[in-house]
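Tokenise the fold.
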Amino acid sequence: MTAVLPPPAAAGAPSAPGPVDEPGVSLVRGAWRRLRRDPTAIVGAVLVAAFLLVALAAPLLAGYEPGRALPGNGVTPSSVPGPSPEHPLGLDASGVDLLTQLVYGARQSLVIGVVSTSLGLAAGMALGVLAGAFGGWVDVAVMRVVDIMLSIPSLLLAVSIAALLGQSPISVMLAIAAAQVPIFARLLRGSMLAQRGSDYVLAASSLGLRHRTVVMSHVLPNSLGPVIVQATLVLGTAIIEVAALSYLGLGDGNPATAEWGRLLVRAQARLQSDPHLALLPGACIAVTALGFTLLGESLREALDPKGRR
């Protein structure tokens, strides 16, 4: 039998559609596209942005001095004044404007949370780089120290350090940072070990680059993605731990300092008569931590290469 060939296409006739090559998209740009379409990321970003705006604009939003009891406030052992035009959320048990305390409490939580997370990130990255870059006995020694720190619950470790250092914002920052160090150390070490077997590391070593140059210029920058995402998640946890230490009496020793955990302590005696004194700061803690958690989880999924479509 003779094969029948299709007639040649006429000149100028459109050709059949074929596969179209799409331009390559970088990891950051692809992650940004996925985040813009993710409702969870949008909700988390809005909550985090609101928290940052309130914390940074505290003097503009609050009409009174934090921690200062107003004269003639009308606070009695059985009740506190409710909302009014001068005090939209009413007063707390000490006769201080509650809105002012909540707003300045956001600033206190932001400062302590960011500083403690930055300290924990720096120390954890230093240990992770030592373990991931050198390997051998250095890796074993560093990771045994990290395992010892992980064997102690993070809140218990923070409480112990804060109790030893005394009541001050610096002790709270150091206590929370110490509890975060093993998290970042293990994560960066694992990420660097995964990157060490990549082709670009072999190519760089074949070109004669020094081991230190390969680690610091190639392996470390490509290993920071998971660490940055974890820092976002840990920041929400740090805000909860700040409130927890203040609730336990290990926060700032100045009674005039506005902290959400301290507000919860003051509201304990009035839970039945004035429950809003505890519900409002508790809601601030929960919503802020939720915002950082949603944003961090969405960022982790967006940066995951397996999630690309």
In short: The chain has eleven helices and no strands. Residues 22 and 286 are 43 Å apart (CA to CA). The domain at 28-63+91-307 is CATH 1.10.3720.10 (MetI-like fold).
